Amino acid sequence: MGVNTAHAWDLLQAAGKPHSVIRVRNLQTSLVVGKDAWGRTKKSQPVLISASVSLREPFESASTEDAVTKSTVHYGTLSKAILEACSRFSQVYGEDEQSLAALAVDIAAGLTQGQNIKSPEVPLLSSKMMRLLEITIMLPKASLLGSGVSVTDSLMYDLSEQGPGLASYILTLHDLKVTTLIGVNPNERLAKQLVVATVKIDGMKHTLTATDSYNALEEIVVKTIEESSFQTLEALAAHVGMRIIKYFLIPLYVSQSSATKDYQITMSFEKPTAVTFADAPVVEMTLESDPSKNPAAKILWDSASKMQKPPFPLQGRLDEWIASNDS
After folding, report:
1. Mean pLDDT highest for which of 88-102, 149-163, 261-275?
2. Would you call 166 helix, strand, or coil by DSSP?
3. Is the pLDDT of residue 252 over 90?
4. Alpha-helical runs (H) found in 127-232
5. Structurally, how many domains does the chain consist of?
6. Which family does it belong to (predicted)?
7. Helix crossing, 318-326 with 214-226: angle to 10°?
8. Of 3, 4, 7, 2, which is closest to residue 170 (Cα–Cα)?
9. Which one of 37, 100, 247, 317 counts the least CB within 10 Å of its CB?
10. What percent of the chain has pLDDT over 90?
11. In a domain, 53, yes or no
């Protein structure tokens, strides 16, 4: 049976608040996967893998007996199973081009179908014991101006199904550091200052290969920010979001029949130097790409067939490319 897709917030609401969770954070390995910071494929690069397992029942015997029992998951075994899945992934695909999504799917299969552990007939994780499995794959060196690129695959399991019944997929650009003219105060109009942007696109599960277009997405975000001169972070965020819809998501939809119009773009913008006695003021907003939910986006979708994706890498300014192609 196929897996239904949902936005992460809806999936987490359906799963409910977890009361027992086992997590492994930033498990380190290196793999030939995705693209590097310059968009090159078939390059080995460092990979950080995090996994979160939400259990159906409290730890019970594990906490009362102070032992690793069937009411919990041994985090050491979980870590080994993840690394074994990565090893199998590397052996199967070698230096063939593979997406981050493919790696996430392979790790989930290894944990829930017993493909990559010593006892294949007994999976480490099952829908009987687990409600939610979240796998995040981070490439810390895959961004030119940020702290990395990640994908998060969230899978919700129902007791009546052998596999996941609901899934969400998020692509994130982390902490892009860009200088731009931004601010209301007179002194802020005199020189550029640093803006730190994090951009999440929820809904990428609809088209797995699209997750590795993060270099092109980063280019759009970075050039849009550095070429702008807004007074408020709110206006800048809205502008960046509409650029993502127009020059990234719509061309993606046009080029891939498996894509969707229903994405959620969540953007966080920080100004580290704006408030003297604070780390940074932060503005965060979520923009819907679905034309039925966002009238401004509907105007863009009405001309979807005419939308073009900027080349990567783009030589020169993005606003000049847009002016020459929109005319």
Report:
1. 261-275
2. strand
3. no
4. 214-226
5. 2
6. Belongs to the DHNA family.
7. 100
8. 7
9. 317
10. 71
11. yes
Cα gap 252→264, rounded to integer Å: 15
My answer on whether 186 and 167 are in the same domain is: no
Whether residues 165 and 231 share a domain: the answer is no
Q: Please spell the DSSP secondary structure of 58-98, one letter per residue.
A: --THHHHTTS--TTS--HHHHHHHHHHHHHHHHHHHTTS--
Nearest CA among 169, 172, 170, 168 for reference residue 149 = 172
Report phi then psi at 228, rounded to 5. Answer: -95, 170
First to last CA, the chain: 47
CA distance 85 to 70: 22
Confidence at residue 63, expressed as pLDDT on a 0 to 100 scale: 47
For residue 1, give the nearest of 168, 163, 112, 207 by alpha carbon: 163
Extract the runs of DSSP E, i.e. beta strands, from 158-281: 164-180, 193-202, 264-270
C-alpha dihedral, 112 to 14 to 100 to 109, nearest 10°: 10
